[in-house]
Each structure stands twice: as structure tokens, then as C-alpha cells.
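Encode chain A's predicted structure.
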Amino acid sequence: MEIQLYLQPLNPTLIEAENYSGRRNLLNIIDKHTESHFPDTDKPGLAIVGVEEDRGNPANSSSAAAPDAIRKAFYTLFCHWPELRIIDLGNIKAGHTIEDTYFALSQVIGHLIRNKMTVIILGGTQDLTFANYQAYENTGQLVNIASVDPAFDLGQDGEDLNAHSYLSKIIIHQPNYLFNFTNLGYQSYFVDADAISLMKNMFFDVYRLGLVKAQPEETEPVVRNADMLSFDISSIRASDAPGNGQPLPNGFSGEETCRICRYAGMSDKLSSIGIYEFNPAYDRQGITASLIAQMIWYFIDGFAHRLGDLPIEGSNEFARYNVRIEGHEEEVVFLRSKKTDRWWIDLSFGRKDRKKYERHHYVPCSKNDYESALKDDIPDRWWQFYQKLM
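Encoded structure for chain A:
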């Protein structure tokens, strides 16, 4: 596929070397799409793709300018991974219709993930998550989505696809290849109680902001289970990220968002991350652009430290723990990586599921889940995914 047709070269003013000091700046390390050069997309590594599209959220128009504003801050940061291959493919311009933009983005991402590249998407508005999801349609796998967002973005019945309704469009899309959806950081006063019940009835994971802030380490297994992560900048408190047309007084701190991004980078399963709803028109002194640049830096740092510890049937690199819970017929089986000390719940034994479910037989968890099981308390994660696989 000739994805170069969908992508515009980087603005020359962004990549003038005299704008940056130091040989190890990311500007000087990244392989960039210019008027005379297009990076090789057939080799594994990391790819950055900007999307100049903001029609999906009129209340945050001008977010189409976000990709280059982020790059301006990102390129100044120093590279600590000289052996890591990173390419910047430039921007997808807004199409004649918004559907044209969705199609172009899904084609570009689909090509990259099929070539074992992990993609960093610089939005644009969060409805682009739908196009990101569509990119997985021809991969033959069911997809787990994680979203960092103060709301669920289910929209209203019959509402067109936009930044506040993309999730409902994903749920009803046919063919449907969504296995699990996770929300991190919803704020209760922005979410209808019926919507929370709906999410739980669909066996989706939803984590209130206060809970995530109180137990930040518990976000690691949640993010580790995702294939793609969608990050709404309005989930960050306005004092740390003012660059948004709908800023909120409460939300994650800058440090917490960087932690989530590093967890995402470390996940061997995750193959795309999108950062959306940044609007340079509302930014103050480049604070939000700098924070997003640092979020991407932490994602790359996590990626550079991936250790390939996904469970494989028959592997001897995992310690196995069988826990019998009183009043429960089946044992709860846990795996602990001897390499990284990370934990999984094993739902593979005795199953004869079709091949497309195999990736979901091992559910990331924390040591706290194992310790809860030892106290005869069935972990929520076990019950949720057991119900999905029944």
C-alpha cells in the first residue's frame, strides 16, 4: 500500500536544525518525512502520524493545529534510546469530508501495525479513535481499547459520529471486533448513572478518577491489556493542561499522565496510542504542548524497555499459582513472570475457543488480585473476563 499518498511532509520550519541545540535532540535522531525523503514503513519500530482534523468537535476547533505544536516541543527533548528506530511520517490533511480523513487514517495505521510498527497518533479530535479502531478490522484479531477520559463518549441515540459519541459507534459497528473497553478517570458528575450500569452490564472496565489517583499502580495491568489507547487531554486538570476548548478544574496531574503513558509503552500488546483534543489556541506559554511532548517521551521510554513477557502456553518462564476459593468450583490460576514479576490471570485451561480468542486467555492483573484470591475473594478481573469467554 502506498500510504505516502495520504501523508504530507513535515513543515520545513519545524525541522531546521538551527532551531535546536544538541546532537542527541530527537530532531536529529528521528527519520522524518520531508519533500525529498519518505521513511521506510516496512521495518519494526515507532511511527508518529499527525492528523489535522477537528470537525468532530466544533467546541474545540483549531485542534487541527495540534500535531505541529506538539512536535515543536517534542523535537527539543533528548533521546536516550540511540538504537531505537523512530520515524515521523508527517500529517494527514483534513479530507474533503470527515469520512475521508477517517479512511486515510485507518489505512495508514492498518499498514503500519501490519508491519509491526507501533503508532503514535497526534490529533485532532477524539472521534479519530473510531478510525484508529477501524485500522484493526483486517488484522483478524479482537481488540481491547483503553480510554483516558472524564466521560464515556457514548453520545445520544441517533447522534452522528463525533468526539462525544465515538464509543457508541464502535460498539454498534459491524463487523464488530471489540473485545473489551476500559475507561480510566471518568468523573462521576459528567456521567449518567445509567451509563455506568450499561458499561458494567457489557463487562467493560470503568475506573473513577478518585480510585485511579488513589491506586495509580493499578492502572498498569489495565493499560497492559489494551491494543490501543485513546487519551483525551481534557482528562488532565486545566492547571496542568490549559490547551483545550473545554478545560476542567479536576483531572489527572501531569506526572500521572506521564506514568500512564510509560505503562502503555511497556505493554507488549499495545500497538497504537492517540493523543487528542489539544488546542494550541488555548494553550499558555506552550504548557500543554510541553506536557504532551513529555507524555510521548515517557511512552517511548516504556517502549524501549519492553521485555517480551507475554504468557505463552507451555512456557517455563512463569510461576504458576492455583488458588481454590471456598464455594467456587473452578480454581483461579495466576501466572507471575520470572523475568519482570508482572502478574496474569490464566483463563486458557480447558478452553476450546476459536483462535481469535487466544490473545484474551491471559488477563493482566496485579499481585493485589492474587492476594485477594488467597482471602477467598474472587478478583473482579477474573469474573469479568470469565463471563466474556463463557
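Residues 318-389 form one domain.
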